[in-house]
Design brief:
Largest sheet: 7 strands, mixed
Shape: elongated
Low-confidence stretches: none
Order of helices and strands: EEEEEEEEEEE
Helix content: under 10%
Mean pLDDT: 96
Strand content: over 45%
Length: 120
């Protein structure tokens, strides 16, 4: 199995910055794509950003130019640097990893989520 543990959420004023981290552990053979999703109250979970094993990134239009995703493959960790935060960025942020276990089982894994609250 694969476990994902997020950290770095919190309360920040509009215009501020936060950095989220997500560390993967467990019976990991390979991690393909890692990413961040978010879910605001009353809304569906949405993609924020993803990064492949070779560093190709993809961002939601709403965060382009403000958020940066990065990855330390050796440490099996993904980061999300969030700048110029807006109240509409308020949500629970979830880490996701598409991973292959040592038993060659491939699946999507999710963290428990970390709350980000941006005050106006």
């Amino acid at each position: 199995q694969v476990q994902l543990v997020e950290s770095g959420g919190g309360l920040v004023q509009a215009g501020g910055s936060l950095r989220l981290s997500c560390a993967a552990s467990g019976s990991i053979f390979r991690i393909n794509v890692m990413g961040w999703y978010r879910q605001a109250p009353g809304k569906e979970r949405e993609l924020v950003a993803t990064i492949t094993a070779v560093g190709t990134t993809n961002y939601a239009d709403s965060v382009k130019g403000r958020f940066t995703i990065s990855r330390d493959s050796a440490a099996k960790t993904v980061y999300l640097q969030m700048n110029s935060l807006k109240p509409e960025d308020t949500a629970v942020y979830y880490c996701n990893a598409e991973a292959v276990t040592t038993g060659y089982y491939r699946s999507d894994y999710w963290g428990q989520g970390t709350q980000v609250t941006v005050s106006s």
